[in-house]
Amino acid sequence: MTFLSDDALEGRGIGTRGFAIAANYVSAQFAALGLEPGDKGQWFEQVHLRRRELDNASMRLSFSGARGAQEYSVDSDFVLTWPGPANSDLEGPVIFVGYGLTIPRRNYDDYARADVRGKIVAFLPGGPSELTVDERAYYEESKLRNAEAHGAIATLRIWTTGEAKSETWMSVVRSYAEAGIFTWGIESESGPMQRIEHVWLGPAASEKLFAGSTSTYLKALEQPIPGPLRVRARLTAKGHVTTLTTPNVVGLLRGSDSTLSDEYVVITAHLDHLGIGKAVRGDSIYNGAVDNASGVAALVELARAFATRHDRPRRSLLFVAFTGEEAGDMGSEYFVRHAPVPLGSIVANVNIDGISVWPFEGLVPRGAEHSTLLRDVQAGGAAAGTRILAEPVPNRYWLAGSDQYSFMKAGVPALMIGAGRSGAGLQAALAWVRTRYHQPCDDMMQPLDMEAAAQFARDLFHVIDAIAKSGERPRWNRGDFFSSLTLRQ
Known about the structure:
12 helices
């Protein structure tokens, strides 16, 4: 953790010198442990990306209607959140398309009576009540592609009163300013590129979008009925696009079983962080000690533990330090599309996005409830002598927030291990989220309980060991939403 979060690595920003140093460090650690290069004889799986950097001074958004025109300010009222073209100057009428979803398997289509070709569409986050939490999270990322497929020239994502209860608008602005805006560098090697602009509207602009229309802002939140709004929107933006190559680091430990060694458990942690950004109290290096030098440190120590034990696990283990998580799980998305082993031979993913550096009372296996991985987690918990706890905040969707979700979308059972806490441990973790998450002060000078961190890693070892030696391959629960998903090339 100390090395990976040192100022010399400059926050491990995607595609930077500091990230390259971190990647070389991890590959050297893997090599010293006796792991094999895990990507066709190489330590690095190169991911090709493009980064869009915008000139905020040139950005303009305005709405015009019967009541005149209103101009909005970047950051205060809106942010651009998708790569799009380097420069944009577009204008058109706005069509409200409810949640912006088309789901044939549910016989649901917000575009059924909306002609949006050449127009700008506005939509709400989330989905209709008949969708499960898992479905709403999964289909959320389809909205931009859906709008483009229907011929829209841009999208406006509406801020809701429900969101205001759990986060602030400025936290949204800060998250996009910090992580950067990335897309695939070579479309044929990855997912489809998005070619239209996507704007996230703040509270004031979201409400004004409905001025003069039949439906008010609040009515639209309650009953999102698609239809035209009495407003035209214009967006101008200038910037430039740079191309870069940034690696996933992949190490392989072969299993001991003559049959099961052809199956793989993939243990992952993201190596990137936010790089150098806006100074806070004179510090502009976002070191990312807990997020996620701690997870990568655990990844290396887990590799050490498995590589040095006298009896190797039956299944093979792939240890992967991902790039691009902070920009939207881009390294893991690339990995599942270009896995160094057949995707069907990957039986499970265990992702580590921050380990517990505060006292904890048990493990929370987020995602395991969807598959028989929960059985293996419970077996691992029993071996470790630790409790396996239920999700303490069940209505909040955690799975789509880190790299394990790339595996789940591709049909691979996956989980991210969290920690269950109470008392002082819980208060310390909540305080960290409020004051240090994605801040320069997430460094090695903060209070850290390294014995708790070591215990968390030991518990992880037993969970992974249970998965790697189980005679039964993990499978989705019968009828589970994720059981129907496979990688869409």
